[in-house]
Amino acid sequence: MKATRPLTAIATTIVTSCILGLSAMAHAKQPELKPFFADYKAEVSGISGSGSRSLEKDRQQWVLKFGAEVSIVIASINIDETSKLTLKDGKVQPVQYVYKRSGIGGKPAKTANFNWKKLESVWQQKDETSTVKFKQGSQDPLSYQLQLRLDLKAGKKTDLAYPVVDDDEVYERKFIIEGEEILSTRTGKLKTIKVKIVRDDDDRQTWIWFAKDWDYILVQFLQKENDSDYLIKFDQGKVDGKPVKGL
């Protein structure tokens, strides 16, 4: 005679299956990263410049880069930022951050290495070194923008905040989601999400626009400070190998 399974065993199997199923669903919904590159045109109170952003996979890590060049009369300012990072459970974890500035106001390169077991980062600029403790969820000065994109992509509607580790301090970068907007770009009109950076005073106001249909890449950045405007507008780019096109 075939043995009958106890009701407790059957119930345990059902509950376990449900938990595993929900876990798989949650894992499947985790935002994914896609490689991209984007070129921008910049204006700083009438002074022109250019910029670029890119994200590429390098073995088990991702490499996020930002570069900008602004020309002033016969001189120029060049800024290059690189963040090497990993993605764990939908969360960006910076591994190494490098900041370089040349031209006017040029400084020695600044490098930070993140140790997630010890929850500390070591910053070095020339002969100066500092160690900064941080908490889970912390970002570097560039990687937080990628985490913001992932959270917008995941459909988060509430205001967002990220601890940012920068040199010898940890500060919180806060954002207000202001809503959707159709933005005109060189490639046509794009559906965007408009986000404002929260600051302690009103002397500087900053907004960022992300393209909804193109993996939420940054397509416009506007900063107003002391009667000066700093505007970056999307020029061209690709997401996952596909050229960005308007509606």
CATH architecture label name: Clam
Can you write the helix and strand succession as a string?
Answer: HEEEEEEEEHEEEEEEE
Sheet/helix structural class: mainly beta
Nearest-integer average pLDDT = 85
Helicity, in percent?
10-25%
The overall number of domains is: 1
Could you outline the blueprint of secondary structure elements for this entry?
Elements: H1 7-28, E1 36-44, E2 47-58, E3 61-72, E4 75-88, E5 91-103, E6 107-115, E7 120-125, E8 128-133, H2 143-153, E9 160-166, E10 169-185, E11 188-198, E12 204-211, E13 218-225, E14 228-239, E15 242-243
Antiparallel strand pairs: 1-2, 1-14, 2-3, 3-4, 4-5, 5-6, 6-7, 7-8, 9-10, 10-11, 11-12, 12-13, 13-14, 14-15
Walk me through what this model shows.
This protein has two helices and 15 strands. The chain has a 15-stranded antiparallel β-sheet that branches. The protein is globular, with a radius of gyration of 22 Å. The protein is 13% helix and 59% strand. It is mainly β. The model is unreliable at 1-28 (pLDDT under 50). It has one domain (32-238): outer membrane lipoprotein receptor (LolB), chain A (Clam).
